[in-house]
What we know:
It is a single chain. The chain has 230 residues and is of the alpha/beta class. The protein folds into 2 domains: 7-133 and 211-217, Rossmann fold (3-Layer(aba) Sandwich); 152-206, Arc Repressor Mutant, subunit A (Orthogonal Bundle). Helix content is 35%, strand content 17%. It has 8 helices and 8 strands. It has helices spanning 16-26, 67-70, 87-96, 108-119, 152-162, 167-174, 178-192, 197-206, and strands at residues 7-12, 33-40, 50-54, 77-82, 100-103, 124-126, 212-216, 226-228. The chain has an 8-stranded mixed β-sheet with strand order 6-5-4-3-1-2-7-8, sandwiched between helices. Helix 1 links the parallel strand 1 (7-12) and strand 2. The longest helix has 15 residues, at 178-192.
Amino acid sequence: MAGTEPLRVALMNDFEVVVRGLQAMLEPFEHRVSVVELDAQVEVARSVDVTLYDTFSEPQVDGDEFDNVLDSDDPGAVVVYTWNVDPALVEIALAKGCRGYIGKTVGGAELVECLERVASGEVVVEPATSRVPTPEFHSPGDWPGRVEGLSAREAEIVTLITQGLTNVDIAARTFLSINSVKTYIRTAYRKMGVTRRSQAVRWGLQHGLTPDTMRKPGKDADAGTAQTGT
């Protein structure tokens, strides 16, 4: 990467634990990447080189809600970090103006390299579809429900159940088939010790699987205030 200053990066997702997990992934590379903002349910407020959008429990790039990320005042180059590397989604993201589309098989070091390539002017799509995550794949980073034993995908499904989405809604949001959604629900319910949707919603509310609202500076993340809610 040209120059000596690290990239200024904003991290976006509606769950504080997710953006903090991304921050922890990038910390070993702070001489190359400076996380200047962590955002949940708010637009980027600072001038940044790159906005990294984690799709955990979020609208995919094919929805109108995602356009709010691109339309914020100064998001820099927008890069999507996701499990959903369907070629149709990649094409939509690039057509909308995203500069990168990165699958979650990519860990910290490779992610930093991708961000640097984007900042230098490249359009980066990584990895190839041959490296699509399998259901057993253990995602890097962090997510709500992890300490209770939920996989990242299971946790994502439960967060959407907790927010009141139907299975059809969840399939559309996550770009999964209905059968895959039902499989994740079954395995998650076993780990949670529940059998009914109402019990799953109660479990989700009790274990922090509802979105947060916050903006915190990356260099001094404990100095700001956070407000949580649905």
